[in-house]
Amino acid sequence: MSVVTIYRLAESCLSLIEGGDIAEGSSLSYNEIKIACGNVINQLLKTEYFSINGKMGEVIPNGTTLGLYEGIDVVSYNGKSKATLPIKPIKLPRNMGIWAIYAKYDPNDIGYELDKEFIPLQMGQGGLIKSQPLLNDLMGQVGYENFGMDVIFTKDLKTLFPNIKLAMRLAIMDISMYGDYDPLPILPEQEWQVIQEVYKLYSTQAIPDKLVDPTVDESKGVPTNQQKANQ
Q1: Residue after which a domain boundary falls, among 132, 156, 172
Q2: Do 121 and 164 lie in a common domain?
Q3: Are residues 71 and 132 in the same domain?
Q4: What angle do CA 128, 134, 139 make, to 5 degrees?
Q5: Reading across the β-sheet that carries 165-172, which strands appear in turn?
Q6: Same domain, 75 and 49
Q7: Residue 166 and residue 187 in one domain
Q8: I need a labelling partner for 15 at 20 to 30 A (CA). Which of 24, 36, 46, 117 fits?
Q9: Which residues make Cβ contacts (< 8 Å) with residue 158, sequence separation at least 6?
Q10: Is 167 in the same domain as 72?
């Protein structure tokens, strides 16, 4: 099964709009077509979510994926520690857009301890737990709260483990957050639907023929007024 990427979609759309060969002097760019493809994909995913999953009470939009981001730095912060999210995850109930955060303690690159993920806390729960003598240390575990693009941990991880690196699994759906060659969360039949919708947006624009004859209108290939006068 072939992988659908935003670059592949943009290339297919631009080739179709140009009539087969992509002209070097085209007024359309890959970046412009990529944005149009992303807008169409987002609309398809949201429409499907609200028309089907929304009626069923589903809280996680269809098309959501968990992206793995590794090698994230940690810094000391007010007696605790802080890390910055590599991307902005989608908003889900109970802040489940930040699905999991793991740590790599060993500098010898033995891998992340996937069975020892940090404990997620809702905003404000850190202060509540701190007031409870039996829970204030989370029984030796490390918790975290999310504030915007920052994750604040309950301990200073940088002091405990100077070489620590983090891995995060984040829920993403906004197509603008995907790289040119990242697989897209769309169905095979939606690939052609995206191409058709983008083609409709630009098919009415006149594409220059790139003719060098000064007596020919490049936009439509018809005789100019000067040529008519000579006739």
Answers
A1: 172
A2: yes
A3: yes
A4: 95
A5: 65-72, 165-172, 98-104
A6: no
A7: no
A8: 46
A9: 74, 75, 76, 81, 164
A10: yes
Cα–Cα nearest to 84, from 179, 166, 182: 166
Q: For residues 116 and 113, give the distance between their C-alpha atoms in angstroms, rounded to a whole number.
A: 5
For residue 188, the enclosing domain spans 6-59+178-220
Show pLDDT as tens, one digit a residue, over the chain (231 residues). Answer: 467 888 889 888 888 887 766 555 566 788 888 888 888 887 777 665 555 555 555 556 655 778 888 889 999 998 889 999 887 777 676 777 889 999 887 666 666 776 688 988 876 666 656 656 555 566 668 889 998 889 999 888 888 888 889 999 988 877 777 788 877 767 777 888 899 999 888 876 555 555 555 555 554 444 545 545 555
Say how many domains are in the chain: 2
Tracing tokens 């857009």 back to the chain, one arrives at 97
Which residue reads 């983008």 in tokens? 198
At position 142, the amino acid (one-letter code) is: V
Is the same domain home to 89 and 144?
yes
Rounded-to-integer distance, Cα 11 and Cα 140, Å:
52
* Same-domain status, 165 and 73: yes
> How far, CA to CA in Å, does 114 sit from each of 101, 102, 104?
9, 6, 9
Write out the two tokens for 84: 């910055």
Residue 1 inside a domain? The answer is no
Query: What are the C-alpha distances in Å from 192 to residues 16, 43, 45, 189?
Result: 12, 15, 15, 6
113, 189: one domain = no
